[in-house]
Amino acid sequence: MRALVEKPSSEDAPSNLAVLGRYIRQAKVPDLLAETSAGVGGEIQLTDALDALIKTGRLNAFETDAAIFDCGNQQGCLGANLAVGMRDAGIRKYVRDLWQVLRSIIPVNY
Predict the structure, then answer these.
(1) Same domain, yes or no: 27 and 59
(2) Tally of CB atoms within 10 A around 64
(3) Please, which of 17, 39, 46, 69 could form a disulfide with 76 given CB 3.0 to 4.6 Å?
(4) pTM of the model
């Protein structure tokens, strides 16, 4: 990994990889955040501090094929909750039963 970019457009993205937001961070990251200028959206971005860490030292990462849910929108939040809920047998049964009820009351072409 040579660099991190916060929310690039698809045309400007340097790769097809994404940072999923789960970190075991090094102790120097808060100091780097304190030195980081506002970036995308006028906010100080952790991505920019981690990019600075890459330039001054080392950042470990790994690739995964895990499901990704963007909890910044309703669909992603619902998907994440369903994915976690479906791990539990009782909730899984409830969701399946609920789906059957919903299918009976929602028009087919909805």
Answers:
(1) yes
(2) 9
(3) 69
(4) 0.57
The count of domains in the chain is: 2
Domain residues for the domain of 17 are 1-66
Q: What is the DSSP string of 70-110?
A: -TTSHHHHHHHHHHHHTTSHHHHHHHHHHHHHHHHHS-TT-
Low-confidence residues of the chain: pLDDT under 70: 110
For residue 110, tell me if it sits in a domain.
no
Name the residue among 22, 32, 31, 16 with its Cα closest to residue 60.
22
Angle between helices 89-105 and 74-85 (to 10 degrees): 130
CA distance 63 to 38: 28
Residue 108 in contact with residue 97, Cβ under 8 Å? no
Q: Is 16 exposed, middle or buried (0-12, 13-18, 19+ CB in 10 A)?
A: exposed
